[in-house]
Amino acid sequence: MSTAFADSALTWEYLLHTWRALEVPEGWRPELAVEGIQIAPPPGGQHNLTAARLHRALLPVVPDGHEVFQTQGVGFRNVGSIYVPDLCVAPVAAIPHGSDPVPTEHVLLAVEITSRSNAEHDRKKKRWAYAHGPVPQYLLIDAFDEDGPAVSLFSDPVKGVYSRTIRIPFGEPIKIGAPFGIDLDTAGF
Question: How far is the C-alpha of 170 from the C-alpha of 104, rounded, in Å?
Answer without folding.
Answer: 28
